[in-house]
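Q: For a teaching session next week I want to show students how multiple molecules come together into a single three-dimensional assembly. I've collected the sequence lines for a complex. Could you give me the predicted C-alpha cells for the whole thing so I can convert them for display?
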Amino acid sequence: MNLTLRVWRQKNAASPGSMETYAARDISPDMSFLEMLDVVNEALLAEGKDPIAFDHDCREGICGTCSLTIDGIAHGPQRATTTCQLHMRQYEDGDTITIEPFRAKAFPVLRDLCVDRASFDRILQAGGFISVNTGGAPDANAVPIGKVEADKAMDAAACIGCGACVAMCPNASAMLFVAAKVGHLAHLPQGQPERDRRVLGMVAAMDREAFGSCRNYYECEAVCPKEIPVRFIAEMNRDYRNASAR
Amino acid sequence: MKLDAQVPSGPMADKWDSHRFAMKLVNPANKRKFRVLVVGSGLAGGSAAASLAELGYAVDCFCFQDSPRRAHSIAAQGGINAAKNYQNDGDSVRRLFYDTVKGGDFRSREANVYRLAQVSAAIIDQCVAQGVPFAREYGGQLDNRSFGGAQVSRTFYARGQTGQQLLLGCYAALNRQIGEKRVAMHTRCEMLDLVVVDGRARGIVTRDLVTGRLERWAGDAVILATGGYSPVFYLSTNAKGCNVTASWRAHKRGAGFANPCYTQIHPTCIPQSGDHQSKLTLMSESLRNDGRVWVPMAPGDRRSPEQIPDAERDYYLERKYPSFGNLAPRDISSRSAKEVCDEGRGVGPGGRGVFLDFRDAIARLGEDTVRDRYGNLFEMYERITAENPYKVPMRMYPAPHYSMGGLWVDYNLMSTIPGLHVLGEANFSDHGANRLGASALMQGLADGYFVIPYTLGHYFGASKLAPVSADHPEFVRVEQEAAARLARLLSINGKRSPDSFHKELGHLMWNDCGMARNAAGLGRALARIPELREEFWKNLAVTGGEADLNVTLEKAGRVADFLEFAELLCRDALARNESCGGHFREEYQTPDGEAQRNDEEFCHASVWEHTGDGKAPVMHKEPLVFEDVHLSTRSYK
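A: Of course. Below is the structure for the complete assembly, covering every listed component.
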C-alpha cells in the first residue's frame, strides 16, 4: 500500500521544527510501523536527504525506547501496544499518518522524533530504590510474600518507562510513571523501611522537573502499553499524605 | 600473547573460596582514589558499576542508550537459574555446574562454571532484597519452573519479563549510587576506542551521540560489559543497537578474541515475513513446556494444520529425543528445525518454519490455564503475525540470539590487556559452545555482583599504576584516529546506505556461517567479506554532519566494525574442524546427524590475536582441562 506521512522535523533542540510531508511507497501490511519508517528513511538517504531520526532499540515492546505520537495518540491506535509492535495492517492504502515526537516540556526534543527523557532517570535517582548493598542479603525465601501482593507489585513493576503517560496527559503529568515505581516497592515488605522517604523524595524530584499536575484525565492509563492502572496514583497520593503527616 | 587462565589450584569446590582469601585487598580509604570506567549498563555492567561504587571506587558508567534501563538485558523473557533446590528435586551447585558444562558441549572453562553455579543462589537473594517481584506461590514462597534442557526446576521468573525486572533491580541500585554522586552516568555516549598506556588499559574515547563531541576518559581500569555480536547476522533477536564495536576496538588494541564461531541460534522465533524485516522476535523457550513441535510427514504438504491428521504429522523432537522431547537444548532443536525445512517439510511462507502446537495442551489443561501461563506471549505473537495461536499452531524458525564467544578473560575476568576486564555476554568463559536457557542473566549478574568486586580489588592491590591523564599523548592519538574514521565515513559520498551493507553481510553470514557450516561455504564467505568491506569504504552514503545527532553515522561506524569482525568469525569456524554445541560443521557429524566433537584436537579455546589491518590474525590455544567432569558425548535421547 501507499501512504502519506506528515512528520515533525527538527534539526536540534535549539532550532524550530516543522511538519514535512513524505510518501511511503510499497508498504507491506506485515511491516511494523518502525519498519515502514526504515523504508522511508532508505528512500530519503538515496535522495541524499537526512533520514528521520527516531528512538528505538529492542523492537519487541519491552525496552521502552520507542516513542512517537501517531495521529495524536502516544504509541498509536492499538491498545496496549508500543510503536515498535504496531503493524501496518492497522492502516489502509491511501491513509495519511501524522507523526510527532512525545510532546512535553520535561521531554525536550533532541532531533526530529527523538526526545530527552532523562527527567525520568532523575526522579528514580531521588528514591526509586531499596538501599541494600551487594552481599549479605538474607535467603530469598526468608520473607514470604503472598501471591496476591507479589502480583500487585509486579503489575506496577511492568512499567517500561517509555513516557507515553506524560505525552498523552493534557498537563504532561508524570504521576502514573512515578506512582508505578512507588507502588511496585510499596507492595513489597523489602520496600517498607524507606516507604515514606521514597515517596516524598520522588514526588519532590518530579516537582523539580517540568511536569504538570494530575487532573484525573486518565489518558495515561488509556495509552499505557503495559496497562498500568491509575489505581496506583491513588495509592501514591495516600502514601504521600501519610508520609507528609508523619 | 600469553594466555594464563589464573585458575586457582585445589579441589574444584574450594577454588573460589581459597582464591578470595589469596586475593589482595584495597584499603577502604584508598578505594575512592581508583577510577573505574564501566562501558555498558545491562545486567553485567549495571551490577558491576553499582557494586563497585558501593565499595567506594570512583565509577564512570557509559551507555549508548538514552537510559541505563534500556540495555538489551531487558528483553530476556524466560528466567534466571540458581542452584537453590527450593523444589527438593535434587538440584545442587554440582548439578547446575555439570548441566552447564555438558550443555556447553565441554568447551567451557570448568573452574569459571563452578564458580558461576556457586554464586547463583546469592544472586536470587540479592535480587529479592532489591525488590525484584519474582513469581510466587500462594504461600509466599518463590515459584520455579524447568527451563531449556534441565530436568530440575531451578528457574526463577517474573511473568514473561524476567530480564526487565532483574535489570530494574540493578538499575535501581545504580540509580542510588548516581544519586549519591558515586557513579557518574553518561547516557547516549558510545565508546569508540580503548586507550592502552604502557601495556595497561587506561581509558576510552567516546562520542556524545547528541552533540557529536569526542571525549577522552582516563581511569585505572576499564570494564567492558557491552554484550554480544549476534547482529553480525543482521537479523537476530538482539536490539537494533547491539554491536561489536567496543569488543572489536579492544581486540584491535591487543585483547584476544576467543571462540567467535560459537553463536547461539534460538529455536523459537517468529519467522521472517519479508525483505523489510528489521529484527526477529523471540518467543520464550518456556512455550516448549506445553507446546509440541511438528511438521508434516510429507514434503510439500501445504494443507492447513488442522487438516493434517496426527498420523501424518512428524513430532520430530519427541521422535528423535524421547527423554527430552520438545525440551531438547537450543542448538539441537534449532538444527532439527533446519533439517526438516531443508527436507521440504517446512511450513508457512517460503517453507522456513515449523509448528509449535498448543492443541493438546489446551485439550488437557483448558484454554484458561494456557492463557494464565502464556497469555502475554500469545498476544505478542498475534500482534506480529495476525494469527491466533489458540486456534492455529504458532509458526517458529530459529534465529541468531546469543554469542557464547567473546573477549578472552582469565579466572579474574581480565582480558589479555592488563586492566581491561570483560563481563557478561561480552566475554567467552562460561557457556562453552552452547548456552542453556536462563543462564545468561545468571552469568551477567554473577560477574557484576559477585566476581568483579573481588577481582578488580586484587588487580589494584597487586599492580603499581602510574598516574595518567586524558591529555597523555596516547589519548590524543586515539582520539585523532577516531575522529579521522568518522570523517572518512562522512566523506565517501557513495550510493549505498549502512543498512544495505549490513543486510548483505548478514545474509551471507546466515547462509555460509549460520546453523550449519562447511569448508566450501566458509571459504566463499572469507572471499566475499573483504570485497564487501572494500565496497563499503568506496560506496557508503552517510548524510548529515559529525556534530549532530546522526543515526546514519552511528550505524555506519558499527557496520564498519561488523565487516571486519565477520571475517574473524568465519576464520574461527573454518579452523575448528569439529562440531560442538552451536558450531555445526557438516563434515563432522555422526551417522544419525548429531554433532561430532573431536576432543583429541579441539579441546581448547581458540584465542585470536590481531596483528594489524590486512594481516592474518594469529590463533593461540588455551587447553581446556577437565578435572571434575568426564568428557562424554552429549546425549539427550
